[in-house]
Amino acid sequence: MIQQQTPPRGILPIDVDEDQDLLEDLPASVQQRLQALLRTNESIELAVASDIRADGRFGPTWLVSTSLRILSIDAEVADGDAAPAQLLLTDVLAVELRDFHGSGALHVRTADRGLTLARFSRSLMPKFNRVPRRLEQLVREMQPGRSDEDRIARGVADVAGARRRCDRCGRVIPRRFGLCPACLETRKLLVRLLSYAKPYWGLGVLSLSLMVINTTISLSPVLFMASLLDDVLVPTEEGTSLRPLLADLEAYEKLVVLVVTLLVIYVSSNLMGAVRRYVLAWLGQHVTLDLRNEVYRHLNTLSLSFYDERETGRVMASITQDVGRLQDFISDGLQEIIRDVLTIVFICIVLFWLDASLAALVLLPTPLLVFTTLRFGGKLHFTYRSLWRRWAGISALLADTIPGVRVVKAFSQEAREIGKFEVRSGELLDGELRAAKLQSLFSPIMAFITRIGTLVIWLVGGARVLEGELSLGFFTVFTGYMWQFYGPVEGLCRLNHRFQRAATSAERVFETLDSQPDVRDIPDAPPMPRLVGRVEFDDVTFAYDDKPVLRHIDLVVEPGEMIGLAGHSGAGKSTLINLICRFYDVGEGAIRIDGRDVRDVELKSLRNQIGVVLQDPFLFNGTVGDNIAYGKPGASLDEIVAAARAAHAHDFLMNLPHGYDTVVGERGTRLSGGERQRVSIARAILRDPRILILDEATSSVDTETEVKIQEALERLIRGRTTFAIAHRLSTLRHANRLLILDKGAIAEIGTHDELLEADGVYARLCRMQSELMKRKAW
Amino acid sequence: MTEPQPTYDLMRELSLIDPTTARLWVDEFDELYLRIDDGEPRGPLTVQRAFPISMADEFLSLKDSSGGEIAVIRRLDRFDSHSRAAIQSQLEWAYFASTITAIHSIEIAYHVPHWDVETDRGRRVFELHSSRRDIRVLPGGRVLVRDADGNLYEIPDVRRLDVASHAFVEDYI
Hints:
Chain A contains 25 helices and 18 strands. Chain A is of the alpha/beta class and about 775 residues long.
């Protein structure tokens, strides 16, 4: 963990012995000043460093408590300056930790004054939250007469931040990861990407050998050209290495043989090129198919918390855009890279074989090329990363506003939405132009560097031809190969940006793949047997994103019992049912169904036996029949119709133009709210769940529809353990017991009559609602 | 043609305190108190900004120890200097944030961004959870940063940073 001016011990795990933990090593300057103040028999009991000074600058100030007093010492204030602030422990009345928006403070109060003895950043909150308790111990030792009930210390209930660091290495865990990525095995992106090609290694080898042969063949024409010049057209004394083969032939015959050989070479190399191209494309497409499917498969295993933290558009972009980029790279870029590298290696061998001193000159600009490429590479990578972010931002904006088009139109804010889009669009343009600027600079620079190489060769080689050391044919061959050398080198450098773009996308894809679901099966989790339906909450506590939502819930629900859940918005009702479905795992305590902890059984087998009807039922684009059968694929038509009848959906379904075959539209928008609700009830009935969850199932429909839905629900709940959330208390009249939640804790529990008798929260809610009904009746 | 019926005046919803009669001060226990005219002092109070980012000194909500709002300050600059200082001293700590004046480096190790910056309160090194969620870009080049522990930093205008610092941050906004 890097944190400037943290105390020497850094942030220690919470379970370390607390007294030890709060006694940090004082720097020499502070110790000196303390020694001057301390009396004999006065020992240092607590010493913690804060990271903000009294004047608001960053820097350590020490909070020290001896057996007699509490002091605040600024480490950088020299001797002889103002005496440190101090309070005698015998005077202390209260010690309070204050949790502000941007910092924290330790406030100590005596009978006649109050002092803020330490200011600290939120990073030190977990440590300072333990200070008041320790100070209370010390104060009590000095004030023996004080009663235990008279509380001195006041801390903060829940300290955020601590849980977002890795237990093992103390590093921050990025939000999108379930585990510390530094502690996970990290593999190089490319190696990892190539591992997806493993199943197709046979094809990979085939295309590679094709490429080797092809490269060899395509390099030979230059040799034949030399022979054409030196052996046939302008015979020189030495000739070329091919001369012995052609020795017995006439000049015209030689010409024909060479031209025909060249023809065969061109035809075969292009044919092979075509085959290789297709094979590699096939390979690339299959690798991306696997990757795309794996990403989607993985997205489906991830817990709700993954989606809570991300915008839909950005999640979608990782499948549509990133995998697409990788496909482009694997099936196109990668083979160019391999081909270019092969060509470079081959030509290097040929060039050195031809003439080592000239070959060395050819290689001269290469280091410069590599350096420039690397230099630009880093810049390009960042540019592409920010470009990616801007693209994803546009996707997110669209995913946000297009489903909200009704609201946009109702408030006639089209112009504003267009404006917002145009701003993002313009930012994208800026980013693209930045990338374009880099690219347009890059290519000419590279081209220029290579030209310098050719100029040198022409100068040195040309001189040697003039001096008669080299034949024209030989020099032609050499320059020919030289051009073929610079071509792939330049090509590789140009590929660099494509490679960077792909690396960015690979990063995003693997990030998604590396995210671990918070909620997952333990290894070899047994399936949940057919449920009886006894649900038990054993001291359940749950915090969502550091905000405590449920506290110490104890509850046993008997099979077939209906529990009505009521309470204010945000009291934790929905969280309670999310925990039953195991959408999240409990923080502390356990939920047991039929005596088995929900974390110990296979998730799928558990959820298969739970039916859910939500306030805003989500239907998928498809026919009504398909939607009813969603939870039970392969359900017979009889079952579908029976379920629809039980849910009071049959009659209106029959009036739709295509009956059960009517397409409901995206999210079921072609049906009304009440109709969608009844389809979703049919969907739940068909599943025949043992545990049924009704989350505000009737809150958004008119009274007549509500009556119908209520009738449907009455049939549905028979014999099943049911949890129903409702704001309208009348809909809970069938409940065996009512559970009233208040600020995450159980406020009241009992039957309707019992709760009325108790005259508590529920009784008040009932009175208010009947009052409301009277007003409505007017 | 008849005049449209008058509708409910929304402004009646605001319960603003009158800057000419209200006095605020911090007592010897370091607690904030309010007195209107010659009424009883009310407190200890905490002060909260309604628009902490867009309008730091307008619409300040005064709350009692149980968290109930007792009054709203419309504009802090309408109050007398003593009251203003009392409120400012509370706000400064409650909304403790540092202004980033230069960026030494931003590095990413294991997907965690590490920032090494110079602030008006001194040098500071911190980590972010995610560059996307923890950096908020506002119009006019203003950038807000929240580190992994919840500490707040602000760049008033990225375009006014030196070239090197600007280049560091540009890739993340």
